[in-house]
Amino acid sequence: MQDHAELIARAKAWLAEDPDPETREDLAKLVDAAPGTPAVLDDLAARFAGTLQFGTAGLRGELGAGPMRMNRSVVIRAAAGLAAYLKAKGQAGGLVVVGYDARYKSADFARDTAAVMTGAGLRAAVLPRPLPTPVLAFAIRHLGAVAGVEVTASHNPPRDNGYKVYLGDGSQIVPPADAEIAAEIAAVRALDDVPRPETGWETLGEDVLEAYLARTDAVLAPGSPRGARTVYTAMHGVGKETLLAAFARAGFPEPVLVAEQAEPDPDFPTVAFPNPEEPGAMDLAFATARAARPDLVIANDPDADRCAVAVPVGDGALRMLRGDEVGALLAAHLVRRGVAPDGPRTFAESIVSSSLLGRIAEKAGLGYEETLTGFKWIARVDGLRYGYEEALGYCVDPDGVRDKDGITAALLISELASELKEEGRTLLDLLDDLAVEHGLHATDQLSVRVRDLSLIAAAMRRLRERQPERLAGLAVTAAEDLAEGTATLPPTDGLRYTLDGARVIVRPSGTEPKLKCYLEVVVPVAGHAELPRAREKATELLTALKRDLAEAAGI
Fold first, then answer.
1. Strand order in the sheet with 123-126
2. Are 258 and 160 part of one and the same domain?
3. What is the CATH number of the domain that holds 159?
4. Per-residue pLDDT tens for 1-32?
């Protein structure tokens, strides 16, 4: 009973300073119903089990009252911590740019952030309306800001929201900044101690979006073909207006919209998860494409920093390209166009992405670097010309946006499709050429979503304690515990297995309750005639890898 009384007391203390009438009302109902109601007590216990942790992904979590949920109280504390960090770094009076998507509470969280920055003596500027995350990343560098905040949960479920922090170089925070900001957040006591004036910050005009759109000109080659026809879905997010404007500016045919998903809707009513990679998310786009018969299908995730691509394969059928395939196609396109000898010349990717990028860079005489997972690492590579990650993220203009950008990636893949179309070829034909030139690099993923996070820890522990000796009949020739770091990578929670002709990486997701296993097999190909058999062999190996790895991990 004492534990229950303490829990209710903590909830009432939170309630007393909650500035949001909605979460205050919800929490008050829970407090009133809690005595003698186990389900409500369990809900309260989950909300007050700790505090939502601020890390290199910033904050992300379910909306609701309490320190383990995303709400105005948590955001105000996060903003106050960020402001204190910036002032401690000698950036008092600097500009902080704030962007936001169209999720529930995003505009409120953006406004609270601007108020806190203003109250702390910094200057704050809020983007004019819900806009893609890459517009915020661009605006930081364009306006000379000391930091930026994007309120978004990207492709998470409707009940979630998040808080992504960038520093003045326009890239996301990495250690030790995350821990230093977290310490400042923890030092915030009562919300009444955080000044939050009702005015004093700037709402930016459309000129910042115009500057971003003008920058997209740098992505395309002058005079390049622009004839590819596209079906486009914004996945109920904020990408539509910006992408249409960019395509019109570039001279591409106006994309055919997936009408049911074109406008922002925080309920994401037509998809179980608003992520183009999730089963069923592209069904409406494919239905639209079967009627419109485009050259390619493009999808952004809700904050438009990711870009998915699908292509027709005949008789109304379409094939979704894997992120690794699009990553290789864009790299090959940049090589075909020519990389300036006096400009950035390094291609980079995270360790979970296909090794094909390294083969392409090596043959082209370009630099190549592997990083930890996430664009917070990729964007920091010296001399970066192009970076990508298998989860549909592509950085094609690092000088403009030092993060993944689903708008400019869509432009570049459309330019490539247009060039190939003029040659009577397709993206699939170029993928075949790359397989013959470098070997067939086939990738897949074993992803397990859990409700109980301890299951992920148990799987990682099992693999560490019982290292598999063979997977899919292939000998494990090297096993690395990435938690110990490597010669080129700082420590991270993950395992990497090198096999004869294959590679496996296992890691917990940084943003979702998932255990993610990244699989790659490389099958030599002597010529185009051998491709069908090579693909069959790759599929067999990937299927066996999934089976054996699931058994080894106990998932």
1. 59-62, 160-167, 147-151, 95-100, 123-126, 202-203
2. no
3. 3.40.120.10
4. 447 889 999 999 999 999 999 999 999 999 99
